[in-house]
C-alpha cells in the first residue's frame, strides 16, 4: 500500500508578497490592501488570522501598515524591552478590548498584529479579538523569544525600546 500523501506545509507570507499585494491593492483604489497580509491560516496561524515573521511585522509597523501590539506582561517588557514600533498592552487588563479600541482609534478594520513571547498567547487572543469584532488580526508566531515559526524578534537582532 502506498504511503499517504503529506499535507502541504503552511504558507508564509513573504515581504515581497506583502508589498506586491499592497501595491496591487493600491492600484485598485486601496480595496483589499491587506488581503495577502491576512491570508487565513498563513504561517500556522488559526483560521481567519494571518501571520507575519518578526522582520515583516517590524517593517509593516514602521511603515504604519499595521498596529503592532506586544501583549506580554510588564515584567516581560522590563526583561527584554518592547519591539521597536510595537505598543505594549498587557492582555490581562480588564479593559484590554477598550484599550485596543483606543489605540486603533475606534477602527476595528485597522490591521492589528499581536506579538507575545513565543506565539501561543497571540494565537489564542487573535480568535477572541475576531469574536469581539476586530476584522484584520495578524499573528506574529515567532514572538519575541522564538518558536517553531522562527528565531524571534530578539534573535533576529531587531531593535527594542525600553517600556
Account of the protein in words:
- This protein has 163 residues and is α/β, with parallel strands linked by helices.
- The protein has a single domain, classed as Rhodanese-like domain (Oxidized Rhodanese, domain 1, 3-Layer(aba) Sandwich).
- 31% of the residues lie in helices and 12% in strands.
- It is built from five helices and seven strands, in the order αβαβαββαβαββ.
- The strands form two sheets. Strands 1-6-5-2-4 form a five-stranded parallel β-sheet, with helices on both faces. The chain has a two-stranded antiparallel sheet with strand order 3-7.
- The radius of gyration is 16 Å and the shape is globular.
- It starts with 14 loop residues before the first helix and ends with a strand.
- The relative contact order is 0.18.
Alpha-carbon Rg, integer: 16 Å
| Content-based structural category | alpha/beta
Strand content: 5-15%
The CATH architecture comes to 3-Layer(aba) Sandwich
Main sheet overview? 5 strands, parallel
**Count of DSSP strands:** 7
Q: What is the CATH fold-level name?
A: Oxidized Rhodanese, domain 1
Q: Total domains, how many?
A: 1
Alpha carbon gap, first and last residue: 58 Å
Discrete helix count: 5
- Spans where pLDDT lies below 50 across 5 or more residues: 7-48
Going across the biggest sheet, name each strand in turn. Answer: 1-6-5-2-4
CATH superfamily: Rhodanese-like domain
Helix share, percent: 25-40%
Descriptive terms for the model:
163 residues, Oxidized Rhodanese, domain 1, 5 helices, alpha/beta
Amino acid at each position: 500500500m502506498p504511503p499517504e500523501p503529506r499535507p502541504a506545509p503552511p504558507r508564509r507570507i513573504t515581504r515581497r508578497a506583502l508589498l506586491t499585494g499592497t501595491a496591487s491593492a493600491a492600484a485598485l483604489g486601496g480595496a483589499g490592501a491587506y488581503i495577502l497580509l491576512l491570508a487565513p491560516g498563513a504561517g500556522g496561524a488559526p483560521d481567519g488570522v494571518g501571520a507575519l515573521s518578526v522582520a515583516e511585522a517590524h517593517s509593516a509597523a514602521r511603515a504604519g501598515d499595521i498596529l503592532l501590539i506586544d501583549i506580554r506582561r510588564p515584567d516581560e517588557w522590563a526583561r527584554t524591552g518592547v519591539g521597536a514600533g510595537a505598543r505594549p498592552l498587557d492582555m490581562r487588563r480588564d479593559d484590554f478590548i477598550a484599550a485596543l479600541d483606543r489605540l486603533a482609534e475606534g477602527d476595528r478594520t485597522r490591521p492589528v498584529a499581536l506579538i507575545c513571547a513565543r506565539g501561543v498567547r497571540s494565537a489564542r487572543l487573535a480568535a477572541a479579538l475576531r469574536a469581539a469584532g476586530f476584522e484584520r488580526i495578524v499573528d506574529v508566531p515567532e514572538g519575541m523569544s522564538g518558536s517553531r515559526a522562527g528565531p524571534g524578534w530578539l534573535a533576529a537582532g531587531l531593535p527594542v525600546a525600553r517600556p
